[in-house]
Amino acid sequence: MVSEKAPVIDTLTGSFLISTPQMPDPRFEEQVIYVCAHSHEGAMGVAINKPSPFFSLDEVLRNANLPIPKKALPPVHIGGPVELESAFILYQSDYQAEHRLEISPTISLSRETKILEDIAHDRGPERYLFLLGYAGWGPGQLEAELLADGWLTLPADDHIIFDVADDEKWRMAAMLYGIDISTFGDMIGYA
Questions:
Q1: Would you tell me how many other CB atoms lie within 10 Å of the CB of residue 149?
Q2: Among residues 173, 163, 148, 132, which one has the least CA distance to residue 47?
Q3: What is the mean pLDDT of each run of 10 residues along the chain (191 residues)?
Q4: Which pTM does this prediction carry?
Q5: pLDDT value at residue 4
Q6: Given this model, what pLDDT does residue 190 score?
Q7: In which family does this protein belong, per the annotation (predicted)?
Q8: Pairing of strands 128-137, 76-78
């Protein structure tokens, strides 16, 4: 007799976590987190739709004594509540950095300052987000939050990360898969 088991999620790396209306932590209300690493040791991701009202990339470049490029710069994003003083660049992998975390075949994450220098000199990645901080979970913590219906997991989409307006990413990421996230909790049932 063969026993059927529910599929085990090996890793959520490269996926979206979309906060549901049941999210108990107000810091993650209407957030889209791009999961950068996930294993039995925990998880790490960055919020991709939370622009900072306090910092601009122009200021970051000026403070680093770097020139301001002619083309428009994206906003600085708050990647999460952990280590807000740490900067990360999430970028399309057609640009190559020496020190990077390859999340998917098309997306990488780095803290390498050379990327910021390349952005200042118009030779950096074409599509990127500059982030301060990240979201982190200890062993089993994210899985517990998933069971409590705080997050919806969906395949990530590069277009949502880089091309959709920040205030539309939460809704659009879910709508790609036919989910109206604003009514998500109204439809959950338990057997």
A1: 15
A2: 132
A3: 44 93 87 95 96 94 93 94 94 90 95 94 94 95 86 94 96 89 60 41
A4: 0.88
A5: 42
A6: 44
A7: Belongs to the UPF0301 (AlgH) family.
A8: parallel
The CA distance from 6 to 107, in Å, is 29
Beta-bridge partners for 19: 151
CB of 34 within 8 A of CB of 48? yes
Q: Is 133 helix (H, G, I), strand (E, B) or coil?
A: strand
Contact 50, 29 (CB under 8 A): no
Amino acid at position 152, single letter: L
| Secondary structure (3-state) at 130 | strand
Domains recognised in the chain with CATH numbers: 15-182 (3.40.1740.10)
Tokens matching residue 89: 């660049």
